[in-house]
Structure formats: C-alpha cells, structure tokens
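Morning, I've got a small favour to ask if you have a moment. I'm working through a protein record and want to make sense of it properly. The fold is given in discrete form, as structure tokens running alongside the sequence. Can you walk me through what the tokens say about the fold? Thanks so much in advance, here it is:
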Amino acid sequence: MANAPSEVHFRVNLISDQVNTLLRQRAFQQLSVVASVLMVAAGTILALLMTMHLATAIRMRSGTQSKIREIGDLQKICEDLDHQKKRATQRANAIAPLLPIARQRVAWAPKLAAVAAALPPGAGVVSIRASQSDIFVVRASANAKQQNEGGLPQMAIAILCAASEAPSDNLGAFVENLKKDEAFMNKFDSVQLTAMEQDSWASKPVEILHVHAQGTPK
C-alpha cells in the first residue's frame, strides 16, 4: 500500500507528456499546412514568372529571326547597290574623256537664233562660219595669254542689207544687240564690226556687214 500513490503520480505525468506531444504535433501540422500553402503560392508565382520569361524569350527569338531576315534582305540590297555602283563607275570611266568636251562645247543653236533675232529690218544672212577647234587641243601651257587664238571658239557673220534701208547706225545696232544677248555671248568675250562692203544685188546697191565674235583662252 505504501507504493500506490507513487504509481498513480507516474501515470498522471505520462498523460501530461502525451498531451504535450499531441499539441506539438498539432502545431507542427498547422505550421506544415501554412508552409505548404506558402510553398504552393511561391511555386505558383515562380511558375508564372517562368511562363512570362519563356514567353518573352520566344518573342525575342521571333524578333531576332525577323531581324536576321531583315539583315539578309538589306545585305542583298547593299550587294545590288554595289553592283550598280560598279557598273555606273565603269560607264563613267568610259565617258570620262568626253566630259571636258561636254563642259567646253559651245551651244551654237542659241547663237544662231540670237543672230536671226538681232538682224536689222530688211537684212539677211549671207554666211556664218563657226569653229571651236580648241576643244580637241591639249594645251601644253598654263598661261592663257600664250594660247593660239586660232583654236578659240569664234564665229564670223556676214549680213546683207539694202543700202537705202540700212544706214550705218542700224548696222552698229546689230552688233550692240548681239552683245546684249546672254545666249550669244556665252563663251564669247568680244563681238566687233570688222568690215563693211558696198556691193550690188539684182542691180541694186547693197551693203555687206562683217561681224566677228571670239572667246578667250580658259
């Protein structure tokens, strides 16, 4: 009988320990549930982020492929332009010797039109001689004053007027009109009356006016 109280007390202590163990297990289970929920939420967030990154990577890859195709097209265009440039350069080199002629040549048609417009009333053209042999001459000297004037652009004009209808002042006006015409004076530096002749045409007295226009060495 003396040992009975101690046995009862030992059993009560075991029940208390078991209750504490159950409480700890319950708390651990609750924490596990919370941790599981947090891990599921974190996993969901990570899955969403991975999906977003994957979609971005796919778009970037698609854009990169599109850029690669554009670069390929641009390279083809550049190659085509290079070929065109090469052909244009070859053609330009072929006509390069003609460029000085194209720049220096005299446009004679506007000058002929200017002569016709400047004729005095009742006058007509007897002859016109024009030359520009300097365009084919290679000048050895850089001094323009030493060039041969025979190779310069020049024009000799002879017009015929009835003596009674063409006084000397009208003949001089013809030269002045030519000097004022920009198309005629292009690449010409001087226009002067060189001679006047008395002649007859169809038994009538006439005057022949000789005008000479000339450029200077360039």
